[in-house]
Amino acid sequence: MKIKLVLFLCLFLIAADSSAQENDITAALYESYDQFKEPSLNKRRIKHKALQPLINRLMSDPKYTVKVVGESIEGRDLTLISIGTGPTSVFLWSQMHGDEPTATQAIFDIINFLNGDTFIAEKEAILSNITLHFLPMLNPDGAEAYTRRNRLGIDINRDALMLQSPEGRTLKMVRDSLDADFGFNLHDQSTYYNAERTEKPATISYLAPAYNYEKDINEVRGNAMKVIVFMNSIIQKYAPGQVGRYNDDFEPRAFGDNIQKWGTSAILIESGGYPGDPEKQEIRKLNYVSILSAVYTIAKGNYKNIPLEDYEKIPENDRMLFDLKIEGLTYTLLGQEYKLDLGIHRSEVDNADHSNFYYNSTVADQGDLSTFYGYETLDAVGYTVKSGKVHPELFKSIESLKESEVFKYLKQGYTYVRLESLPSGKKDTNLPIQIVSKDFKAPVLNLRAGMNPTFVLEKDNEIQFAVVNGFLIRLNGDKSNFKNALILRK
Ligand SMILES: [Zn+2]
């Protein structure tokens, strides 16, 4: 009896000790991140070309096996990077959707970590127990055009059965040849996802996809769930409440679902939104920390003790966020006053070579939006929405406008300034006012979904807020969230 008790205590202490160790490692990874962050990939619009020097560097390193395993439709190489000697095979692929690059960046951060000269014991534990295989940017043609789909115009993630895309065929071929134990399917999701019934964005969402309509849980899927529970506990430390869990309805055409079926524990990670992080660099860091910690826990086998039922405790994903939510404004229509909420989305519009973007905003919804949330929220009760006016003066050029003057115009209710001639090719401006041609007539305010939100908010005969291209400008001087207005050609 005594011996049993001692044994039990020992086991308990070992378990407690290993989880404390993992916590330490996670904290150390978080703290030391900047040392390993790959500096050449600092914006979301990254192209295949930018990855090649990083990949080439690994070719001469004997630790790595670097193999071209396929080609995109437009002929860009798909490269598999492998490292480690362990019996457990972990396969990570990113950017199957061309406009979802966050994890591609994190993969190169992880590779920098593996190449560094710190964390020696941890790396030894990882690489002697695991062989890691990375396939970054599975859809390079999509990345080139910063678009979800591949050059064939299909969603590779609905091609697991037909296998019409060379990218999909490559993914299946690599999965089959490795017969990987774990597969990390790395994506980005809309920033408008939130953790169900909270205002918290789903900065990271997870799914252990089902492998049949019954959503059965076998050991393969169960292991994916356990690793997800572990990663959730890490994200909760750095982004409390900002994790969502995807609906697990079976999608027979999707790769995640099939990879689970083929015997690889498939873990879907979706990078969503984080307040004030448009280039998702904080989310990239969370990818790095949580994936590396997960790899470590797989190497140690510690995930096995995690209770499966904790998976269901992760809040579900919902899609209830706006960039800007304006609550309870007063709107006069045909002589009657109404009270409305407005929900505003800011869409990214790419420049010609998809290296940069500007925002073009729309009213996404209006009415009672009490079940929705905003990254930024304004209580506009008591404020009346008024159409912005066109400034009477005709200006020569954008350069002849000063920001301080523009602020005065906004306070006077002007949200449009006319130019003698519009600068050719330019579609946006950093000035917080819409730029229009000389014949432009101010629109009659007709609030509706789909319109560009440009107006002012008035209370006690004073204009206190302007909304220009969906950006809220507090006329007391704070315009910290403002990015761009539009140059309107009509
Ligand atoms: Zn995706």
Automatic annotation (TrEMBL):
Residues 30-265 form the Peptidase M14 domain. SUPFAM superfamilies: Zn-dependent exopeptidases. It comes from Sediminicola arcticus. Keywords: Carboxypeptidase, Hydrolase, Protease, Signal. InterPro entries: Peptidase_M14. This is M14 family zinc carboxypeptidase. The keyword Signal applies. CDD domains: M14-like (cd06239). GO terms for molecular function: carboxypeptidase activity. Residues 1-20 form the signal peptide. Coiled coil: none annotated.
